[in-house]
């Protein structure tokens, strides 16, 4: 009985997360929904996201690495959307990195922009999958990736948020080596 209740609880959590992701994707994809840009302290936001995944990372035998910048790094954007962006990137890195691996987040300001990088030494993404990884509902053909839960919405949401903030999102990855997601966003003035 307890196992059945636990399974129902996990299914309920997955469905709730799926509905929340679909609603967020719909909102950030809607050209009639204005971006509510304000200064966002990304250095603090990254800390919150890392705190929220720390237990999961430890349980998976991972090391989270983040050296906070020496000065505040402030972007111009919607705080909730940027938290979803960072949460999706860091969450994926934690999910797809095997035990003993490391997830590193770096943040700095450069020439009127903010650069956030999320690097892991996880499964990596094949060249063929890199072409489609930002599409809604896309799941990698890699058996190691398919063995992990996911909806294929996280990176599509991340891309839409970055586009909506007039930023840039790039992926560098090699299968079996790991991935780096780099995000450039406008700095707050």
From TrEMBL:
Transmembrane segments: none annotated. One of its GO terms (biological process) is phosphorelay signal transduction system. InterPro entries: HATPase_C_sf, HATPase_dom, His_kinase_dom, Sensor_HK_Regulatory, Sig_transdc_His_kin-like_C. This is histidine kinase. Its EC number is 2.7.13.3. The keyword Thylakoid does not apply. One of its GO terms (molecular function) is protein histidine kinase activity. Residues 1-189 form the Histidine kinase domain. Keywords: ATP-binding, Kinase, Nucleotide-binding, Phosphoprotein, Transferase, Two-component regulatory system. PANTHER family: HISTIDINE KINASE 1, TWO-COMPONENT HISTIDINE KINASE. It is an enzyme of class 2 (transferase). It comes from metagenome. Pfam families: HATPase_c. It catalyses: ATP + protein L-histidine = ADP + protein N-phospho-L-histidine.
């Amino acid at each position: 009985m307890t196992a059945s209740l636990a399974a129902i609880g996990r299914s309920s959590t997955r469905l709730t997360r799926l509905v929340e992701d679909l609603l967020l994707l719909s909102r950030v994809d809607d050209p009639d929904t204005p971006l509510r840009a304000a200064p966002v302290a990304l250095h603090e936001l990254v800390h919150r996201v890392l705190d929220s995944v720390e237990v999961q990372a430890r349980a998976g035998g991972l090391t989270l690495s983040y050296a906070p910048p020496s000065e505040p790094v402030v972007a111009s954007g919607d705080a909730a959307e940027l938290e979803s962006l960072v949460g999706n990137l860091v969450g994926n890195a934690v999910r797809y990195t095997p035990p003993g691996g490391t997830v590193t987040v770096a943040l700095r300001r450069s020439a009127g922009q903010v650069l956030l990088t999320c690097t892991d030494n996880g499964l990596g993404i094949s060249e063929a999958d890199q072409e489609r990884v930002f599409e809604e509902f896309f799941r990698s053909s890699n058996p190691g990736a398919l063995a992990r839960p996911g909806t294929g919405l996280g990176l599509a949401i991340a891309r839409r948020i970055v586009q909506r903030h007039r930023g840039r999102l790039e992926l560098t990855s090699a299968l079996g080596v790991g991935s780096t997601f780099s995000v450039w966003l406008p700095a707050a003035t």
